Amino acid sequence: MPSESRDEAVVDAVLAWYAVQGRDLPWRDGRTTAWGVLVSEVMLQQTPVARVEPVWREWMARWPTPAALAAATQADAVRAWGRLGYPRRAARLWECSRALVQRHGGEVPVARDELLALPGVGDYTAAAIVSFAHGGRAAVLDTNVKRVLARVWTGSQAPGPSVTAAERALAERILPPEPARAAEWAVASMELGALVCTARSPRCDACPVALQCAWREAGYPAAEASGTKTQAWHGTDRQVRGRIMAVLREATGPVTVPGLDAVEPEQFGRALASLLADGLVTDAGGGTYSL
């Protein structure tokens, strides 16, 4: 089958599968504003949907527009972020809301270059906003989509961590020319990677494109070891940072941040210093700190 015909057949099959199996998420299918999509995309970075959805709903009820968040403080944003992790995302989202008010009248722009100029918005997030918020044509390449492309088209078990020129060229080739259909493909291929073509336990028996999958046809060859290890959590500076942030989120004003049990003073000091450097914690003087 010619590559163009094969591409179209795969896209058709994935879109038909998504129409039946796609999750009913509040930031999809035009049920929220472009701002709601932007917030969801920032929250979903390295965080599962199940953890994001309740926080997203609370966030949007409290700050339904960029102007509403911009009128709050960074501390408010970080506190509302709760335990989603990587609280710098909350700080960047707050900065982004201020930029939207100052530069774009409180609206999320459509142009990719304007999106990329916003705090906390990178290549993937800009493409996602163009596609999911504005129904535009953009190659959205997150980890799930990259894995689907690698397996179905190139026969590889897993893609590398960074987007390559070859991956982008393949994604652009597959992307339907009609903006609305391209936007549907973006979300459907992402959902397929999240629910079926998963990293560790792919459900090939439930895959709508199993018969077209190059990885399956090749006998499921294993990926070469990358030598990259998943970063541990327990006992790390990241864990200590999280515990310090938990203390400050519960406080109503500046407090003395106590040393934490089973934490070396040097590690505690290092974690606190990094939070200060990131602008997530403020030194309120007299040995007290606040968000």
In short:
Helix content is 55%, strand content 2%. It has helices at 3-21, 34-43, 49-62, 66-70, 74-81, 88-104, 112-116, 123-133, 143-154, 165-174, 179-195, 214-217, 237-250, 265-277; strands at 282-285, 288-290. A two-stranded antiparallel ribbon has the order 1-2.
Describe this protein's structure.
The protein is an all-alpha fold and 291 residues long. Among the domains are: 34-107, Endonuclease III, domain 1 (Orthogonal Bundle); 237-290, Orthogonal Bundle (Arc Repressor Mutant, subunit A), CATH 1.10.10. Helices cover 55% and strands 2% of the residues. It has 14 helices and two strands. It has a two-stranded antiparallel sheet with strand order 1-2. The protein is globular, with a radius of gyration of 21 Å.
Strand order of the largest sheet: 1-2
Helix proportion:
40-55%
Q: Write the CATH homologous superfamily of the domain at 34-107.
A: Hypothetical protein, domain 2
Biggest beta sheet summary: 2 strands, antiparallel
- Overall shape: it is globular
Please name the CATH architecture of the domain at 34-107. Orthogonal Bundle
Number of helices: 14
Radius of gyration (CA) equals 21 Å
- At the first level of CATH, what is the class of the domain at 34-107? Mainly Alpha
Mean pLDDT: 89
Strand content bin: under 5%
* Order of secondary-structure elements: HHHHHHHHHHHHHHEE
Question: What's the N-to-C terminus distance?
Answer: 59 Å
Helix- and strand-based class?
A: mainly alpha
